[in-house]
Specification:
- By secondary structure, this protein is mostly helical.
- The chain has one domain.
């Protein structure tokens, strides 16, 4: 893109986005590495086990992603309004919920995991391996969930390069330990779990260091500010709406696993590989969404409606351009990624048949990602919740109709329609944010 095509806001979004994109890409690269080191062991039950375990743990942890999403918009608004005590207080509120939630997850994990597998109709051997993996991963839940808070807070502060450092350290360390524990120490699926918990603890320590100016500075810490009832009410209501949104969104992603177990281990493994590739594009495109979230929060904190409109326009434009590039790349080189992730020929062939879907998905989905970022930056939890409920209802109807008719193709069709519906339902509510400027 030439400089004439990029205005001032475009360039600002890209400056914020590139560290986020690099940081986010490291997350699915970890999933790709997990799958690759296990996939090349040549055992289908182990690959299916890591598929189930990784998807389930990712879904459980991503449930707490409301902390990342809720914190970013509020911090960006507080920074725009130059409220330093509130910036510190939001960080403490988020960490308090993360640590309590992580401890609670450790306490109930045995019952929770057993209940999940009770409703899944997977291979017994794969389920046993998945349970082993998950039981190790959960031990560092407070640290893993706290990383969401640190990343969200750094985003809100506009310190996207710091967030890149945090996520890069966690994921690169995890990848290296994956290779050491599985390829050299031969720890199998447990080695993948051990690599993750070590890297998560290191990530927590780095998060404390990167936020030390507000986390460890007595002048920035005001207990009264942390525990203000009206601030907690706003924080909790926003996060409840995001939790509902996250539960429904993860239910859609879990449909890959639920229906995959019904379709057989080969389709389950293939869907997991394709899902990891989809995550690669989603995390990259979220760089644009997160940047819009930061700038929308700042615009609202500064009460600048024209800036808000410019951010929305630029984010949608850049998101479409980037998603189109990603979609074309997936179409032409996706088979190479599949071959890197597994040596099982039957799984490869299934993946090849569905490459067109992972090429379409980024272009269809990018608008829902950007609108999500806009509404999160505005801290409009109610609109996010309502839009997701509407989209999920459409998804359920599509799955009911298409899966019995078309099998796995019907599942992918339903998910594409779901993402398109997310964008449309949020777009219809954008005027509510604009009207809030005049009301303020």
């Amino acid at each position: 893109m030439s400089s004439q095509l990029l205005n001032k806001i475009d360039k600002k979004i890209l400056r914020l986005a590139y560290p986020i994109i690099l940081a986010n890409i490291s997350i699915p690269l970890l999933g790709l590495t997990d799958t690759a080191v296990i996939g090349h062991l040549g055992a289908l039950d182990i690959l299916a086990g890591i598929s189930m375990g990784a998807v389930l743990m990712g879904s459980i942890y991503w449930f707490f992603g409301f902390l990342r999403m809720g914190v970013t918009g509020l911090v960006a608004q507080a920074r725009g309004a130059n409220e330093k005590v509130e910036i510190s207080s939001i960080l403490f509120r988020g960490l308090f919920i993360a640590i309590i939630g992580g401890i609670g997850l450790i306490v109930v994990h045995s019952f929770l995991f057993s209940s999940i597998f009770y409703f899944l109709a997977g291979d017994i051997g794969a389920e046993k391996l998945a349970m082993e993996y998950m039981s190790i991963r959960v031990l560092t839940a407070p640290f893993a969930i706290s990383i969401f808070v640190f990343v969200g807070w750094l985003f809100g502060m506009g310190k996207t390069f710091h967030s890149l450092c945090l996520l890069a350290v966690v994921n690169v360390l995890n990848i290296l330990l994956d290779i050491i524990f599985v390829k050299f120490l031969h720890l199998g699926i447990a080695g993948v779990a051990y690599a993750t918990i070590v890297s998560e603890f290191c990530g927590f320590c780095l998060g404390v260091y990167l936020s030390r100016e507000f986390l460890l500075n007595k002048e920035s810490i005001k207990l009264r500010g942390i525990f203000l009832s009206n601030k907690w009410k706003l924080f909790i209501l926003l996060n409840i709406n995001i939790v509902i949104r996250s539960i429904l969104l993860q239910s859609v992603f879990l449909s890959y696993l639920i229906f995959g177990t019904l379709f057989g281990s080969e389709i389950l493994a293939a869907n997991h590989i394709l899902l990891q590739i989809i995550f690669l594009s989603a995390y990259a495109l979220d760089g644009i969404a997160f940047s819009s979230e930061i700038l929308v929060g700042e615009a609202i904190g500064q009460r600048r409606q024209e800036l808000f409109k410019k951010v929305v326009k630029s984010a949608l434009k850049l998101g479409f351009i980037l998603s189109s590039i990603i979609g074309v790349c997936f179409y032409f080189v996706g088979f190479l990624v599949v071959d890197l992730m597994t040596s099982i020929n039957s799984v490869r062939l299934i993946c090849y048949d569905f490459l067109i879907w992972i090429s379409i998905m980024p272009i269809v989905s990018v608008f829902s990602y950007v609108y999500d970022g806009i509404f999160l930056g505005a801290a409009r939890g109610k609109e996010i919740r309502v839009a997701m409920i509407q989209s999920f209802a459409i998804f359920c109807i599509c799955v009911t109709v298409f899966v019995p008719l078309m099998g796995n193709t019907g599942l992918w069709t339903s998910i594409v329609i779901f993402n398109a519906t997310r964008a449309i339902t949020l777009w219809t509510k954008i005027e509510r944010i604009q009207s809030s400027f005049s009301s303020n």
